[in-house]
Amino acid sequence: MYSEKVMDHFQNPRNVGEIENASGTGTVGNAKCGDIMRIYLDIDENQIIRDVKFKTFGCGAAVATSSMATELVKGKSIQEAMQITNKAVMEALDGLPPVKVHCSLLAEEAIHAALWDYAQKNHIEIAGLEQPKSDISEEEEEEEY
Ligand code: FES
After folding, report:
1. Which of 103, 105, 110, 115 is catalytic?
2. What pTM, to 2 d.p., does this model score?
3. Nearest partner of 13 among 56, 74, 75, judged by Cα
4. Tens of pLDDT along 75-129?
5. Which of 59, 86, 105 best tests ligand 1's pocket when mutated (most atoms within 8 Å of CB)?
6. Which residues are CB-neighbours of 122 under 8 A, at least 6 positions away?
7. Strand partners, 38
8. Is 103 an active-site residue?
9. How would you class 138 by CB atoms within 10 Å of its CB: exposed for 0-12, middle for 13-18, buried for 19 or more?
């Protein structure tokens, strides 16, 4: 049912952990299953993603897709990272069963939420990035503007 690559990334997930003083963090939840994903990004002054880590209370497919997504965005520019969709992640994993496609969205949404956090902190705009809807970050409440 799962490809070898999915099994590999599930059993040996890359980039698990957290980054202290991350440039941006994003925490999102999946309404369908209640699983949670948090991504930490370390972004340098040239807007290159130097490092990325993730933590999840998620299923195996969420672990595998997040592991692959972190591998794909590491070393990339912010704009390149914006192009990495859950479809690209699934292709890199040789596919996911249809009932597990929603799990792959967690990683994409968490990366976008972390980029949003980075943009907010640095008062910049990232083309094509919108405030993530499923952001459930409890660290600071969004202020009304
Ligand atoms: Fe929840 Fe996969 S079932 S993320």
Report:
1. 103
2. 0.90
3. 56
4. 999 999 999 999 999 999 999 999 999 899 999 999 999 999 999 999 999 999 9
5. 59
6. none
7. 27, 55
8. yes
9. exposed
Q: Which of 28, 56, 65, 103 to mutate to test the pocket of ligand 1 (most atoms within 8 A of CB)?
A: 103
Give the number of residues written for the chain: 145
Which residue type does 124 have?
A: I
Contact assessment for residue 39 and residue 113, using Cβ atoms and an 8 Å cutoff: yes
Instruction: Reply yes or no on whether 59 is catalytic.
Output: no
Whether the per-residue pLDDT at 144 is higher than 60: the answer is no
Q: Which one of 11, 33, 85, 124 is the catalytic residue?
A: 33
Assigned token pair, 78: 């912010």
